[in-house]
Amino acid sequence: MKGLFIKDFSYIKESKLLFLILVLFGFGSSYFYKKPTFVLGYFSVFPGIILMSTISYDSINHGFTSLFTLPIKKEDYLKQKYSLGILLGLLFLFFAICISSIGYYRIQQSFHFLNSDFLQGCLLTLMFSYFVIAIITPVGVYFEAQRSQLAMIIVFGGIFLFVALIYFLTKFIGFDLETIIDSLIENHLSITTLATVIFTFICNIISYHISLKLLNKKEY
């Protein structure tokens, strides 16, 4: 599994200029537009995107065929991908916390924002990153490199359409979902955070088994 990490980090290293641009854009948005929380959501989608790109890279030119002729089990390959997703989520969360903290300090001239609510909000953001990974990993395994762009459109377009559908449907029936969510976050943040962590954990377990079934169905 160590070799798989070295391979993926070597690939990610080649994208260091893109990393720098993303960080600078996030910093500029947080600093100049005085919206420190923007960067938390902004960085939350990148772990999934980068993980998808590593799967696509592995499958280029029948790469999976060569990869699985080595003493590498499909289970170990997937465990490495989900572990990489965890590391990427923590890395981008670190960048987001640093940048948002600079933005908050510029506005408030103090570090009072570093409280339990802020940290739990960061944890919720991290869980969203892992939820995206839970969706994007089996999609990446299924579509591989040839249709990776289509896969990205399906994942992020599907998430957007689902959220928009729920939002307009609740508005149509007079159910104020937005107020309920705000109330839960404001009055029951700890419970909401714990429930989100458990839900995300379950989603990733299901995602792993779906990805494994997809890999086993393919002939390499």
UniProtKB/TrEMBL annotation:
InterPro entries with a match to the protein in the record: ABC2_memb-like
Keywords: Membrane, Transmembrane, Transmembrane helix
Pfam families: ABC2_membrane_5 (PF13346)
Listed transmembrane segments: 17-33, 39-60, 81-106, 118-143, 150-169, 189-210
UniProt-recorded name of the protein: ABC-2 transporter permease
Organism expressing this protein natively: [Clostridium] ammoniilyticum
Species lineage: Bacteria, Bacillati, Bacillota, Erysipelotrichia, Erysipelotrichales
